[in-house]
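Quarterly update from the structural biology core.
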Amino acid sequence: MRVLVATDGSPSARRAVDLVASIPWPDETTIQVVEAIQTGAGLFSGPWTIMDLAPVEQLEVDVQASAEDTVEEARRHISRPDRTVVAAVLHGRPATAIAEAAEVMKADLIVVGSRGHGRIETMVLGSVSAEVVDHAAVPVLVARGKDIGRVILAWDGSSCAAAAADLLLRWPIFARSSVRVVNVIDVKVPWWTGLPEPGSPEMMPMYLEAADSLRRGRDALMDDMVSKLRRAGIAAEADGREGDAATRIIDAAKASDAGMIVLGTHGRTGLSRLVLGSVARNVLVHAPCSVLILRHAPVVHDPPAPFVAPGADPA
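Predicted structure, tokenized:
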């Protein structure tokens, strides 16, 4: 495997490094430890006057030296005889530099801390980790826990969830993990339908039938995935829940003392994500453990050829 680990010297980044050091990577895995720093105006997210050039140059030297120490310390911590671990200091906007380095490396996975904001935290807006999740072309592991022994798979049968489940089936690092397959359904009647409450006499039979159908479908989905995992030699069990998806996934992680939640998400970012909402985003922000997110972009098909009537000039 090829893994890129981003650190910035913060406590959350050190947890990411600790987690990477503990994972049973397959032989010949290559791990690159990086820290992204900004130089010039980017160091302060703004311009400065000529009189400030001398102290700025020294600050850049100090930041570079500190970053080199950070990645070298992490490299030594992660190093093992059966893996190649290298370190590098990147330059540029952290999230952009991390994503680009992962692309150059052809990384299978990016690992980041949960709250890394750069060295001058009060002067950098937003979350580097969240931006990496939004824009990276490969799965991103946002580290909070110490191991991946107990895993929650958020499973709803969608193509996004299937892509995430495929990681559990293919990646050897999960061979000794136990997986709890969690599927959440919402059996409440949405207020916007204008239908009576489920407890009303006219609604109750229809509600019970619909709820039972949802539960049967959920259980069948979970049983199918549990069987696939077990055939691959992975210990697995089903955990069906009802209510808000993100809340119940997090509840399942807490109840089982999980070290990681694995889930897929649509490739939506920016305004569309804020408007549509995102189970993955809520899980990422509030989970008590590490979260492995696969941002699964929807398939874009070629547009159909324009219709041309028989005998007409195509031009």
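The beta strands are 2-6, 29-37, 83-91, 109-113, 140-143, 150-154, 178-185, 235-242, 260-266, 290-296.
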